[in-house]
User: Fold this.
Amino acid sequence: MTRTAGDEEALVAALKGGDESAFAALVDRHAPAMLRVARGYVPSREIAEEVVQETWIALLKGIDSFEGRSSVRTWLFTVLINIAKRRGMRERRDADVAVMAFTGATVDPARFRGSDDPYPGHWLPNEVPSPFPDTPEGSVLGDELITLARRELDKLPERQRVVVTMRDMLGLGSAEVCELLDISFANQRVLLHRGRAAVRQVLESYLRETT
Amino acid sequence: MTTGPMDCNELVELVTAYLDGSLELEDRARFDLHLLECDGCENYLQQFRSTVATVGKIPFDELDPAFRNRLITAFREWR
Assistant:
């Protein structure tokens, strides 16, 4: 999943020269992730595709002045998110407030000892988490867990889904995600934590049933 | 601003901050001390790391060939 940055400069140089295969290589490398992120802002796949297309056209129009100060990926996502926000008509500030207002627990409070217990707030004996098994690359269980994680990710509220996608699927850092989404570090962390915790719960429930 | 020992139900809400290294040092110390004596939370942390790794293995969808062609066509028009 890690994109090799080394040849990206060469691809940009080739693109400036009008090389179609360089364009196709960049599209194959970045467009799938762009589609996924755009989908978090707009109501349909069709509009997400339009947003992605508009972003590539903007890259082409600006390619001569592209100096590689930022990576192609950062450039693409910055432009993509600006276009997607315009098309999505969703108010970011409202979303930010909603994040902070919601402070429910990410683990069912019923799993912990109550205030009348000598160890309040600690795991109840039959609710203590067990480690997830190691799943070798390509193992049946590993593939099942990936499928489950993907299904749960798709079900997350959009802000959580976008943040988890950028951090854990794209591997972006927290500073970059905050800047791209124009949200505070605290909100980014809340969204990421809630999203990850929801996926964790699904995996745990599945593993408890099957193993 | 709590300075007493950390409870399990507090720890589980701080795991992302812990993994990002963004906890205050005081809270990080309480987190680490709790982990030393709580297998359940150590397992929870392991589950969380494993979850993050699993999400990292989700493949991106293949581009729909028709959409890919549209992008290439846009490129030819630009050139």
Q: What stands out?
A: Residues 93 and 183 of chain A are 9 Å apart (CA to CA).
